Structures are given as C-alpha cells and as structure tokens.
C-alpha cells in the first residue's frame, strides 16, 4: 500500500489532537461579564412595571433599580441580546434594588435568533436555578455545561411572596468563533484528496449541525472496492454507515452500523464526533456515545478521490444527488484535523462546491408552540366567518396516541368540525345536530415524535384532508359536504368550564408541539398571541417546542423495549427474562439453593446468578437431594464419542458449548462451594498423558483458554490420572491406565474439581492414528453444590458495630434484598450517604420497616406495617427498589408499598460515602440481630468475611430451624447446619429434601413384607433411633399407623400387626369396604367397618389410625373420624411384627383375616408409618441391614402412576436423580464405538428378544387365565353368603350380638 496516504493520515490526526487542545485553551478562563457593555436596547421583557425599564444589569441602582413586570406570573421573562453568539458559562441574579421584589427560583432559555428558544437542562430535565433571598445579595451559578447562543432569557418561576418579581441579571462567558456553512438542500461541498486513494487506519470527524429537516446526508465517502462511510439524518436520528469489508454491499442497501440521537430536526445545534481506530468506533451525538466494532477484513478505510459533505452528487450528472441532501447549517467541520469549511471559504483547490453554499446560517423565522397540559391547554385563533369553504393547515408532533387537534363551530349551521388523533390515526369529523355529516380517517402511528403536516380544504361541496403532503406514501382523502368557515378555531383543546358550543372536545386535550398554522391561507403570528394582541391561550409554551424523547437513553434494562407518551415512558419486558416497570428484576432465582428453599423439587430451572445485574439467566438442572443441592449444566457433547486417525500434526479437537457465556458459567462456579466435572478416556492402543515429564498426548482447555495436562482425580500441576495417585494403574511404570498402551480396552475416569480451571471448554486428542488404535471420550456436565451466599450471614451484637463496604453505585435503579431476624425494638439495616442524597433501610418499630431515599428532590419514605411483630427472632425478608418510575418496599408476603417517582427534577442517586450495614456513620441506631443473603443490584455482599475482621460482629447466624422447621413435613426433623439446615427423614415414611416424597411400592400376588420389632433400628445410617425404639416387652402408650393404598382387587389384606397373642389387621372385604379387626386379650375382636364406598376402585385412599391410652381413632381419607374408647380391663401388648401384604405364617389366623390373606394384597402401598418406624421405606432402602423380610416381588413405584392402569400389571417406574443419565463406562458405549459385526449382532439380538417376548406374553396370559379360574373357585368356596352391599353415609356404631367380637360400621 502507498505510504504517502498513511503518512498523511497520521499528520492529520496529530493536527486534530492539537486543534482540540487549542480549543480547550481558548475556552480556559471563559468567565468575563457579558452585559457590562450592552446598551439598554439589548434588554427586553414580556412586560414592564410602569415607569421601569427592562435594562437591569447586575448591581444597577439607577431608575427603578432593576426590572419588574406589569404582572407577577409565570408567563413573564427578561432577556438579553448579547450581539453575537458567545459561549455562556455562568449566570448571576439580584433582586430589584431597595425593594422587597426578588425571584427565588428561575429557569433559563437560549436562542441564536430570538426565536425558537431552547430550555437549559441538566440531568435531562428543565433545570430550576435557586434565586435570591433578598434584594441585594448576588446569587451566582456556574453552568454544568456551557451554552453557545446570542440571546439568553430568564424566566421567573417563584418569587418573594411578600413582594413581586424583581431581577437584575448578568451572564458570564467569552467570545465564540466558528466556521459555518449553509446548505439549501440542493448543494454540497466536495473535499478532494491529493492522491487517488486515501487509506486511513484512524479517523476523527467532528461537526455541529442544525436543521428543520428530519432527513438528509451530512457526509459520504466510498472506495471502488466497497469501503464506505456515510452519516445521514433519518427521521430525526443520525445513522452512521461504516464498512471496511470489500464484500459488503453499498450503504444504500445495508443497515446502519449505529443509530443515535432523536428529535435532531429541532433547528438547534447538535454536536457529532466520530472516532475510529481500526475496527473500533466511538460514535457520539451530543452527550450520548455508542461504542461498536465494525466488520471488515482489514483495519484500513479506503476512500477514493473525495469526501462529499451535505449530499452525494451523482458523477457526470450536475445537480443530481443519490439521496436526499442535508438542508441546514454545519459549523466547525473537521475531517482528521482539516477544517473543511475554512478551506471552502478561502476557495482552496481541495474544495469543490456543488450548488449554492453560503457561509452564514440562515434562520427561518418559525415560531413553534407547546401544549403542555392534557386537560387545560388550548390556543384560540380567529378566522373569517361565513366564507363558502374552509382552509386550515399546520404541523404537529407528539408522543400521545390521542388528543384534540382542532375544533371549530362552522357557520350557516353546517355543523362542528373536529380534527383529532385517535389511536395514532388522524380523524376528521363534521358533526351536525342530528347526524354525522362526514368522517375521514387516515394515517397511522402519527404519535412517533416526528413533524407531520395536516391540511384541511373545503371548496365546492368537497372537503379534502391531506396528511404529510411532502411524503412519498400518503394519499388525499376526500368527501362531499358543504361547509362554511367559522370565526373561532380552537387548537389543542377547549377552555376550562367552557359551555359554548363553539368548542367541543370529546377526548383529551392535545399534548405536543405545533407550528406553521395557517387559517384561510393566512399565517398566524403566534408572537402576537404571546403578547396578548391576538386570540387567547392557556398552558402553552410559545416560541419553543419542549418535546422530549424519554426513550433516549433507553432506561428499560436487559433489552426491554421502550415506548412513551408525552409525560412518561413504558417498558415492554416480554421475552427478556426480567420484569418490573423498567425490566430491572429477574424472573428467576439466583441459585438452585433458593429454589429448594421455596420448596421446589428437582427439575430444570433458569438461574440468574447476578439477579438484576447484566448477566442473562442460564438454564440448569437442580438436583435437589436430602443432603446436597446439585446444579448441573449440560453441554453439547455428553455422549461417549469415538476418535480415530488423530496424530500430533492433525489433532482431534472438540469444543464444548454449555449454552451460555463464560461469564455465566464462572459466576455459577464462583458462587458454589464445590464444582466438578467427570472426564472419561477409553482407550485401546491410545496413550493419554505419556509420562509426568513427557509431552502429553491428550489435554483439555479450561476457562482461561489454558492447556491442562492432568486428568480426572489428579490435582493441577501433576501430569497424572487418578490411578497414578493411588498406585493402582495397570502398569506401575505409568501414571494412567491408557499410558500402558495395551491392545485391549481400558479407561481412565475421574473428576476434575479445581474450580479455577473449570469448566472444560475443549479437548484435544493426538494418539489414535496407529494400527488398531482408537479411543472414546466423554465429558460429563458441570456439577456444583453449596451456595456460598444464600446462607451468608452476620450477627451484630452491639449497637455501635457495623460492616462497611464500597459506595453503592445505583444512579438510575437500585434494588436491595436480604433476610433479617432480631429481638430489638429498632435499628438501621443499611445506610449510604451522599452530599445531599441518601438511602436508608431500618426497622423503625417492632412492626414497621422504613425505606427512605432522597435523590435531590426531598426525602421519600415508604413504611410497611406488619400485623404481627417483626422482632420475633424469626427470619423475615425485605425487598426494596428504586427506579426512575417508582419506589417500592415489600416485607415478607405483606402487601407491597409503592410510590410513583416524579418525571421531573433530579433523578440520579449520587452517593459518595461508604455503605454501612447494620449501623450508621454516626454509630447510632445500630441494628442488633442477624442479616443474611444481602444483595445490592444483583451483587452479593460477603458478610461473613467482613465480619471476621470487625469488632462487634460475628460471622454466621444460628437458629434456622426456628424459622424453617415447618418445611420438614411428615415427621421429618429439622437439623441445623452452619450454612442453613436440612430435613432428617429418618423417622418419616417419606423422603426427599423436605420429607414430602412418598415411598411406595407395587405388591403382586404373594408379595409379603414383614418387619420385626425386636431391637432399636435406625433406617438411616449414622442417626440413632434409640429414643423411639419399640421393644417386645414394652407396650407403648401411643400408637400411630398411617398409609395410603391403591387397588382394584378385593378381598385383600393390607396390613397385619402381630402382638403376641393379639393382632390388628386392615383388610378390604369382598364388596370393597374397609375393615379394621383389632383383637385384644386373645378373646375379644373389635371390628370396625367403613363401607361408604368401594375402596377397590383404583383411586388413592389414605388411612390413619391412632391409639392414645384407651382411645382408638380411625380416619379414612377426609371423612369424619371414628373414635372408640376401650374398657379399663383391656391390656395392650407391644407389637412383635408388622406385615404388609400376604402373611406367610398362617397358623392361628382369624378366619376373616385368613380369607383376605388368600392372595394378600395386589396394588400399591405408599408411605407406611408405624410410630417412628417406616417398614416399607426400610424394605426398599435398607433391605440388607433392617429387620425386614421380603417374599415375592416388591417393585418400587409411585402410586399415582398406577391409578389409571391395571394394578395387577404395573411396570416399574424408574426415576434417576441425574437427568442426563449415567452409563457404565468401563467399556465404550456401543453406539459410540461400534463396528459392522456389532451392528449384525445387534440385529440378531433384537430378533431373539422379540421371539422370547412373544413367548413370555403368551405364557403369562395362560397363567393369568388359569389363576383367575382358581381365584373364582376359592371365592365361591370361602364367601358363599351374600354380603351387604349398601353403603352407609353416617357413622353407625352397632354392637353385634356375639360372644367373640364387637363390630362397628361407618
């Protein structure tokens, strides 16, 4: 590439830097008084007090000693004409000399022409300056950002209530010089290079512009090979097209690289700065900057021949332009340090002018007006009545979908004309007393903030509505009706309490801007309206359009889309994963631990590790077990994968994709106590790591893109496998099984658990290219447990103690959440101070939480009152949020307190002190108690680490079970841990993290489970049950029995308890009724029958029985309890055994029990509990160690899965705690490492399996048919009588006349 262009670009860039430095030096000490040499004629005002004059320089004492208006109201103003555009950096005010007249607050406006004023803003709001407290003291204000203008206007807002408005004023600054060019929309400047090609690695382009047009090209350059750069106005926004890639299309057919700014067609100056270094670009419009990286093959921008400013001329066609030209003024236009306008003014040869370009800015004398109130703003203008026809036209812009634009009463009884916005469309109606004479509807989305022109014309019985006549798409809508013009035209709305039929407004008043109002083809002088000599108005800003784009910048977070009305903005959070008025709050919890704490079972969840922070949610699997909560993150290669033909010159490389960013994965890892990933390498003549000092044949890449030559089970820095550490490798000379290089399959499998290296992002294999050499690898999901933050707590035990952290940075939005518990009456949880701003959260009384915040507009307090005390030493949850739209406080599940935020005034929360937790900077009102899981704007504060080095504060906080013990259900016991708690389900018939998961099994014909009560037995290892043991010689004073069942077979025996010579049996009779038979003292049998329905109906039924002393209670499902009291002579004996299903030892059985015991129980039993013993759980979980005997087939299942199926043919339902599945990986998976012979063998196996399955099905069918015949014969033999099949709905206790039993029916 030619070196001359590159040298030129470097020199121009250097010159640009020097120019910026020079400009800064020019503005230094820019604080001279600007009004001292002005004549009195330079001052003007809205009105003057009789005998006074507007000339009111600071410290003026002659005459009336300053300015006062004729009337003191908010429509008054005082302005100075400074003669030329100057740079204004400060202002000062006094009251009127020797009087009680002074202004206590005011606003500023600026203009270049004395028309089309612009209000001074700070923090995107009209700034309210503090005024004077007396007549003579000077109140000086340094402007946060300087203003370049010729006219400055002071607008009093408030004044001394004991006097009137009175002002003396001064402005400070310095002269301002600029080079200006005026483009008329048909002209441009061409900057031609000294050589054919300008190639730049860096570019700096700066300019200022003003325009009334929303579209037009500011500059353009392109190369023959496709490079181009273009800056153009598009609908009032600036679009930058930048391309360094030769293969990309021209800018006219491509989307902009960046779009910035809004409402830039307001005829005010806007600054633009473009900085490019290679592909990195900073694009700045006014105070907003967008950073982006442009695409391209090189870092150089190659432009051929020239750059054009103001338009894109078509070569060879003079006066023809490729796109719409810029129409307006540009000043201080610099391209890489070259002052383009200065060259043009001096007519240098590098500049070629197309069309008419002048070097002073022409200012159109257009007066806009703003309707500021949706209920009371209006403008009344007179018309010429009784003309046959009508002609009205104007331009408007707004954000509101609805509003009245025009209302007038027509002459000659031709009706009322209404022009309005409805749903963003334009509606014209002519209404008469008895009918709607005409209606025209046109346009859509006219509330887009752009200027739209409207014209209404009525001539010769035809009315025409024209919308945007200079646009390409609109069409004219016409209708036939005869109308006569009226004499009053109401724009924007109607006066308050106006009953005259000349103004009618069926909807809201218009909020927005209008300009260029013509009535009867005559322009209306709105300045005369302002001066009171024409028409009338209310709640208008005249001579300025104060429209504001509330979506710039976009305060909707996390990709939320912004829409707006005139007064506020709205956020659409759909498909973002966030919620709230600004899409600030995540829809998801921050970890699996939180989901478990909410009572969720295992499953797939989204977790958002930083809550309201910038990281997006990530989908994980939460494996919630009794002792650990595992977070599993799957990736795209979890199956065993075969590798062949890899060698060092052509390695096998596979990248691992987890479906999330590395920042998301790192956050999950850092927030966990332990993380691991299982890695497996199956090999045949394929070496893994070589020797500890040799070059490894296989390695993996971790999170930092670093190569790691160690394998699962070994620590970092040791080039070994797990077998090398425990000296169990196949060949003791090597440190991995695969390094033995055997011609047979073996493997090295283990877990990687060094968190700083995880997750595995890539695997590289290089030794599978030798004869008979192959390998297969598998990398498991990333698995972590232990939330380091959810249980992170600190205990404050002195009022003067606190923890301090860095300043909370939350200018626009802040959310605070934490748990607390205390016994104190009051105390401050959190405080952070600024110069004026602050934020504070405290418990202000035992039942009140107070959230106080001040962003500069005065403090706001939200108070939530609890109906019960909050200082009860139980954990309570607080969530507080402040954003640009509302402030919110919520405590536990109490109703949320919300207060809307003012759209005007200060909105940045500016803090500068340390953040105090548990106390204040004054060391007063400190908090006594515990704070846990503190989050600020998604950031997790480590309270425990800070508490370790802080006096008066201890890390951690015991006593979780006092708050969360109730989450352990069904007899589960809450056990404290250092970080949280867990539910011990040892004595429960249920299991799972909260002892809520049923333990159930399917019983077939002949299935028997017998539990022997011989000695204490713990059903969970390491936990003693001696306190609840049942001994053979001890009769418990209480007995509790509970279980659930599903069956379709009757008669059947569900449960049988043997107590020496007594028994208790639960059975289903032949008619499906449930019977409890209780034999006590060998002779007497108490029979309790529940026959309200057939319980053998394939539905889940729950039975509870309890005995306390001599009182015996039975409850079936949710029906009323049956209670019976045994006689004092009854003696209860301890149980020896409990049997579920068929009793195998039948001698001495009660006859009815024997009948039900023929088949035992066929169906599903669930959650069987006898006092503190869970016999079914022991049979399924501890078969080898528990005193339980199983005969027949017992298959674990969930009873819910068999309710709608044939319980006699239920298949086992297996559930795995690992959703991704586990496989025996001692050998490679068949589908991953297979050969042709394996495929043939598989086909043969499938055929054989099908044949045997058919034989098995036929055999089972014949067996069941035979068994059914035998069962029917037995039923006929044992149940010859007809049982009573009527069901009783009420409890009926009836003593049967019998010597050996008592029977009761329910």
UniProtKB/TrEMBL annotation:
Fibrinogen C-terminal domain ranges (all copies): 583-635
Chief location bin: membrane
Keywords, ordered alphabetically: Disulfide bond, EGF-like domain, Membrane, Repeat, Signal, Transmembrane, Transmembrane helix
Domain of life: Eukaryota
Membrane topology: Single-pass type I membrane protein
PROSITE patterns reported in the protein's UniProt record: EGF_3, FA58C_3, FIBRINOGEN_C_2, LAM_G_DOMAIN, PROKAR_LIPOPROTEIN
F5/8 type C domain mapped to chain residues: 30-174
Transmembrane segments: 1238-1263
Signal peptide: 1-24
InterPro entries registered for this protein in UniProt: ConA-like_dom_sf (IPR013320), EGF (IPR000742), FA58C (IPR000421), Fibrinogen-like_C (IPR036056), Fibrinogen_a/b/g_C_dom (IPR002181), Galactose-bd-like_sf (IPR008979), Laminin_G (IPR001791), Neurexin-related_CASP (IPR050372)
Keyword Disulfide bond: yes
Laminin G domain sequence ranges: 180-361, 368-545, 792-957, 1021-1199
Positions of the EGF-like domain: 547-584, 958-996
Function in brief: May play a role in the correct development and proper functioning of the peripheral and central nervous system and be involved in cell adhesion and intercellular communication.
Descriptive protein name: Contactin-associated protein-like 5 isoform X1
Annotated source species: Erinaceus europaeus (Western European hedgehog)
